[in-house]
Every structure is written in C-alpha cells, then in structure tokens.
From TrEMBL:
InterPro entries: Anti-sigma-K/W_factor, RskA_C. PANTHER family: ANTI-SIGMA-K FACTOR RSKA (PTHR37461:SF1). One of its GO terms (biological process) is regulation of translation. This is Anti-sigma K factor RskA C-terminal domain-containing protein. GO terms for cellular component: plasma membrane. Residues 92-245 form the Anti-sigma K factor RskA C-terminal domain. One of its GO terms (molecular function) is sigma factor antagonist activity.
C-alpha cells in the first residue's frame, strides 16, 4: 500500500486511538518505524487529539486532519475482535463531547485566560504549602530548643495596669538564645512596639534584645549572650528605645 493510501485509509487514526487488532497494530507500527513521513503524520494526529481534548480551535492547515478524525470516529471503523475498545471509546467520547459542546471554536484567548487562572491558583497553593512547611520547621526547632535540658522557662507576669498581660521566655545560656512566647501580649497600639530586655539585678542593668515584631508567629527567637537574670517587656515608640520606658513596663520575670 502506498504512503498516501495509508494516510487516507484511516488506519493511522485507528492506530493512535488503539482501535486496531494486535496484528494490525504491529503492522502499522512497523510501517511507521520504517517511514519518517508516516511517523510525522502520526505525530500530527496525536497533536490534533490533544488539541481537541483541550478545546483549542484548529489552525487552518489542520482542518482537513480534524475532519478526518471526526469522520473516522463517527464511522465506527474499529474491529470487534481483539481491539482496545476501552481506550478507543475514551478518546471518542472525549472528542465528541467537546465537538458537541462547540468547545473547538472558542477563542484561544479564553483558553489562555483559564490556563493562567489555573496556574495562578497552583502558584498560590504552592506558596501556601511552602509557608506551612516553613512554619512547621520553625515550630519543630523551637520545640527541640524548649525540651533541651539547658533551657530554662521564665514566666513574665503582667505589671501595673497590665495584669492581664503575660509572656513566657525560654532561655538557654549554653546556646546564647532566648525564645519568647508572646501569646499573652495584647496587640500593640498603632505606632508602638513591644521591646524585650535582658536584665541583671544588682545593679539593675537592662540590655536591649530587640523589638517584639508583629507577625503571624507567636514564638520569637532572640540572640542573647548576656548574663541574664530576668526579662522585661516594655511598650515603646515605633522603632524602639535605647533604654526601657518603665512607665510602660508590661511584663517582668526573673530566672529562678
């Protein structure tokens, strides 16, 4: 059979659908392997199927190929014996569904917008998962720190008019690190920020450990290489203060 006859026979479409018998499939596969022109034709048919399934309108030079595929599906050429009906019918049902609904002739821009929307959603979900993984890693690290035998827990009780406020510090002098649980602190007013202080008691000497930054985390980490005997938290103007404002001392707690 001549190359053009094979192209016109519909056997290549049947081969792509999986609608040939095993013997016919092997014969066509052999011909395709021996003839680059047939191999290229099969690739065009496969591409057309994928475009049909995606609902993309055909290019002008592809119209004849699409018509060939549609005609082949409607002619029911598949043999009843030893063929791959499930695969063939899956292709046919998908293609006829899109054809029947008129999806082929939607604007390409509509499909592109839908694809962009899906990509954006996927990117959003990926970022969410990444954030959750990062948050989980942070908590696992904090948990290991708290369970360390060298870590001491310090309860910071509310002071003055702020008796309902509270915080908990976890200090490890071996690692020069302090974790601060700020769950008990009320939200800082606008243009104000909390500040954590390391204190030595005799004489009373405060050392700034840093701002208690507002974030989604309730467990914050501070570098602390000081000979800390107590911790205090004050409310300061935005940007912090070089010395604690004792009138706005919110919590205080000593290492036992």
């Amino acid at each position: 059979m001549e190359i053009q006859e094979i192209k016109n026979s519909g056997d290549l479409e049947a081969y792509v659908c999986g609608a040939l018998t095993r013997q016919e499939t092997l014969a066509i596969a052999k011909l395709i392997k021996q003839n680059p022109e047939l191999e290229e034709e099969v690739e065009r048919i496969e591409s057309a199927y994928f475009q049909l399934a995606a609902g993309i309108a055909p290019a002008v030079d592809q119209v004849a190929l699409y018509e060939s595929i549609k005609a082949y599906i409607k002619e029911d050429k598949a043999k009843a014996e030893n063929n791959h009906w499930s695969q063939y019918l899956g292709w046919a049902a998908s293609l006829l569904l899109f054809l029947g609904c008129g999806y082929l002739f939607y604007e390409n821009t509509d499909i592109t917008e839908q694809m962009v929307s899906v990509e954006q959603k996927n990117e959003f979900l990926t970022n969410e998962v990444t954030d959750l993984d990062s948050l989980n890693a942070d908590y696992q690290e904090a948990l290991a720190f708290i369970k360390d035998p060298n870590t001491v827990k310090v309860n910071l009780a509310g002071q003055g008019n702020h008796t309902t406020a509270g915080a908990v510090a976890f200090h490890n002098a071996e690692k020069d690190v302090t974790y601060l649980d700020i769950t008990g602190l009320p939200e800082a007013p606008a243009n104000m920020t909390y500040q954590l202080w390391s204190l030595t008691l005799n004489p009373l000497t405060p050392t700034n450990l840093g701002l208690v930054a507002s974030s989604s985390k309730t467990m914050l980490e501070f570098t602390n290489a000081n000979d800390t005997q107590a911790f205090g938290i004050t409310l300061e103007e935005a940007g912090g203060s070089p010395t604690p404002t004792l009138e706005r001392l919110y919590t205080l707690g000593a290492i036992q």
